[in-house]
Amino acid sequence: MIRFLPTAPAAPTAQGRRRAAVAGGLAALPLLLAGCGIQPTSVPVDAGAAPSRVACVLPDDGPTSAAPQHTVVRVYLVCGSRVSPVQRSVRLPEGEAEVAAALLETLSAEPGAQARAAGFASQVPAELEVGPGTPADPPGTLRLSVAPSGLPPFALAQIVCTLAETEVAAPQEGSVILAGPADSPLPEPPRRIACTGELRNHPDAADTAGTPVRP
Asked: Which of 26, 28, 33, 152 has its CA 20 to 30 A from that of 168?
């Protein structure tokens, strides 16, 4: 009787060994992730935007008391991708347009070294001016030397949120009515713009914010 001897298994090739090593590594991956507290997933995960490296916080949050004949107010500066408030001691004259002009001057000034180190900046043009509306405008209108749509969106968000927290906003608390020069060749109707969370967090859309206001 013929007896067949069992055939010895062939030695694995180099390619087979590599495939086995890769398969073993993939099989162990879920265990490694679980050990790190990470749950594996079969779909892409949006982890959000990369964290900002700027603090957007001043160590002492600005002045807590006003200098003689000054008032402590909150003005909004650009920090990262939003506008954030800081405290400033400002001398505020009488009259809505005069108050707006004083705040505009504060906004257009370069932030101090401490504010710059914390990530704050301003996009309000230094030459920008503000004055009262015309008799044909809705009550409380302020006219800028540049139409709101012609300003950098971040600058417009700074102006709206700063003015909206002062007497300039009365009687439209939380909003301000702005327009451009009355003698502009293409005048725009005054717009009421509110300092909303959307405006503060996404000031790049400020040039389309607000609603036209008729007398």
From this structure: 152
The answer on pLDDT for 37 being more than 70 is: no
Model pLDDT for residues 60-75, shown as the tens digit of each residue: 656 655 566 789 999 9
> Which residue is associated with the tokens 């959307």?
198
Give the length of the chain.
215
Q: What is the mean pLDDT of residues 175-187?
A: 92
- Write out the E strands in 59-149: 71-79, 82-90, 120-121, 130-132, 142-144
CB 129 within 8 A of CB 167: no
Which residues on neighbouring strands pair with residue 121, listed in sequence order? 78
CA–CA dist 4, 50 (Å, integer):
68
Residue with tokens 């013929």: 2
